[in-house]
Amino acid sequence: MIGSHVRAFRCRACGYCCYRNKVWDSYLAVDEGTLAKITGEGIEDITKNICTTQNQVKQLKCSGNQCSFLNKNNLCHINLQYGYEYLPDACKSYPRIIGVSTRGLEISLVFLCREAIKTIISQNKITFSDEKLTDLILPNNYHYELSSDDEYDLQLIKKYFEFLPKAIEGLQNRCLPLKQRLLILGEESLRLSECTETINFSATSIRDSLGILKEIIISRIGEADTDYTEPYIDNLKKIRGIIDDNTLSLAEYLRIKETFIDREYDKYEYVLENYLVNFMTTNIYFFNGAAFGYTMMMLLLASIQLFMAGYAAFYRRSLDEEIIILAIQNVDTAFFGHMNWFSPKITAIIKKHGICHSAKMAAALGQVL
Q1: Cβ–Cβ < 8 Å for 218, 240
Q2: Residues with Cβ within 8 Å of residue 129, at least 6 apart in sequence
Q3: Residue 345: inside a domain, yes or no?
Q4: Which superkingdom is the protein from (predicted)?
Q5: Residues 6+ positions from 296 with CB-CB distance below 8 Å
Q6: Mean pLDDT across the stretch 331-339?
Q7: Are 95 and 109 in contact (CB under 8 A)?
């Protein structure tokens, strides 16, 4: 099943994904299949511009902060001169996450790409279809594989694929407010993880949850340095100026939200719904467990809403498409693009505050933000 937003994506050759910073290093990697094809055919024009990193990863060389194959028109020399089959897997598939499972191809989008974000703005409601994507270029290696020869694993996969469509259907049930849909999903996620604890919405729980969210965001954006693109750093500084202040409280956040966000929020809530539906199709729920998957999803959502308020307050204007794009792109760049950082560090911050089950905290955040 492939979402309509995936089908709607078209590259506009902005060149952003071809610029180097810490987020993009992994996207410049050259997979073994492509490397073998290039070296086997002796294409020196490409091989001389492949280097080896300190981690022994083959990677396209950069000229300054951009890929050496990016021309002045933001087009790829490899693709123009030799064809897409000579592109590394990362270049072939980006911004798509392409996996394979017992039900076929699994495709979602990463929202480090502005054009990918525009697909969830253009789609009032994501729909799914089994129809084959005729223009899809498959990578040599899938991002993940959700299949197994082991009967126990197959049962887990079956159970997960029974849960997933119901979860997405629940997220898209617009007869209920989004907050209520998220609460139901949180309870289902805890049950799937066989957790018997309930979610606490006391004032103390909510206040502590907001404080932890602030600490997580400050911890992450404080690590930005000159290896990132300048616009990204500038945008994070705008947010830090809003939230990195001892005066930020739940009351202050709600004041900013009421002033700049609430009047237009209903108009754009469907975009957040689409963001969440896309997140579910990444299958992080399966690989990281339903409770942590829910935690991650809610922290991303809460961060996006905090960033929306921050950008709106900084620019002194109401919520609009550009603010939504800025919020989603910078949150996904800071967090989703750093999965290895996300899991252990956030877990450590949450545990430091004595919250034993992070999904409960995430649900509390969702009810406030």
Answers
A1: yes
A2: 1, 2, 4, 7
A3: yes
A4: Bacteria
A5: 284, 288, 342, 343
A6: 71
A7: yes
Same structural domain for residues 208 and 321? yes
Please indicate, yes or no, if residue 267 is contained in any of the structural domains: yes
What is the total count of domains within the chain? 2
340 vs 359: CA distance, rounded Å: 19
Q: Are 70 and 15 in contact (CB under 8 A)?
A: yes
Token pair of 172 as six digits: 């898209």
| Structural domain for 91, as ranges | 2-140
Phi, psi at 52, each rounded to 5°: -115, 125
Question: φ, ψ for residue 131 (rounded to 5)?
Answer: -60, 135
Which tens digits make up the pLDDT trace of 37-93? 999 998 988 999 888 877 788 888 887 778 889 998 889 999 999 988 899 988 888
pLDDT digits (tens, 9 = 90+) for 101-132: 888 889 999 998 999 999 999 999 999 988 88
Structure token pair of residue 69: 């194959």
**Block residue for tokens 């049930």:** 173
Task: Kindly state the tokens that stand for 116.
Answer: 């990918």
Q: pTM of the predicted model, to two decimals?
A: 0.87
> Is residue 131 packed enough to be buried (19+ CB in 10 Å), middle (13-18) or exposed (0-12)?
exposed
- Residue 340 identity: N
Do residue 230 and residue 282 come from a single domain? yes
CA-wise closest residue to 278 among 127, 138, 160? 127
Backbone angles phi, psi at 144, to 5 degrees: -160, 165
CB distance 112 to 333 below 8 Å? yes
